[in-house]
Amino acid sequence: MTSHAYEVALFGEFFAHDLPAILNRFTLHSESAHQMHAREVVFEPFDAQYQRDSGTEPVLLRARKELLEPDSKWLLYSYLKPESVRVHPEATVRPWATCQVVGEALEFASALGYVRRSQIYKRGYVFRRGNLVIQMFQQEHADPKTGKPIPAHPDTLWEVEVKTAAPVRNTQETPLSQSLDAVLEVQLLMKGLLDLRRQDV
């Protein structure tokens, strides 16, 4: 039996007027913070519709590249269906695989039999806390003609993802409970300011 590597995550969103208070609290409780501007492209298998018609949810492939780091490489990653809410009611736990791609990830995905479904840009902040990464961002849509990001409207909702920075294997040395405790600790720290919760995505 293969042992999956997992991501443990909580999600939230807030209005722009709460940004200073939430930014301060995350900064206070993190080891580092920096700005982020990432491009994310979502691919689906070329036969995705056929899979859906057959009652199977296709596995999507995601490509992400950090635009503020000049030498950043594309990261390809994929999630499987989250574990049942009965097993993990307090956070989203889902099998997660990643690989770094040297060169053009979008061509690589096509060669694997995937077609581009959508792309967005995310602009905001990244915080590191232990083995967690906290991303706080507004989504920017791509200009249909140029593909370049269109700045988000100031009132656009901010989204937050608190998650394990790297895939976690559920072993005696690194039990999933450690990662669950870490994300729940952040949930507690943000209580009263930001509601972080499990979601099935």
TrEMBL record:
GO annotation, biological process: regulation of transcription by RNA polymerase II; termination of RNA polymerase II transcription
**Among the entry's GO cellular component annotations, what is one?**
core mediator complex
Q: Where in the cell is it found?
A: Nucleus
Coiled-coil region: none
Q: Which InterPro entries would you find in this protein's record?
A: Mediator_Med18
Q: Does the keyword Oxidoreductase apply?
A: no
Top-rank lineage group of the source organism: Eukaryota
Record's keyword terms, sorted = Activator, Nucleus, Transcription, Transcription regulation
Q: Where are the transmembrane segments?
A: none
Give GO terms: molecular function aspect only: transcription coregulator activity
Q: Partners and quaternary state? A: Component of the Mediator complex.
Q: Which family does the entry's similarity section mention?
A: Belongs to the Mediator complex subunit 18 family.
Which function does this protein serve?
A: Component of the Mediator complex, a coactivator involved in the regulated transcription of nearly all RNA polymerase II-dependent genes. Mediator functions as a bridge to convey information from gene-specific regulatory proteins to the basal RNA polymerase II transcription machinery. Mediator is recruited to promoters by direct interactions with regulatory proteins and serves as a scaffold for the assembly of a functional preinitiation complex with RNA polymerase II and the general transcription factors.
| Name under which the protein is recorded | Mediator of RNA polymerase II transcription subunit 18
From what organism does this protein derive? Trametes coccinea (strain BRFM310)
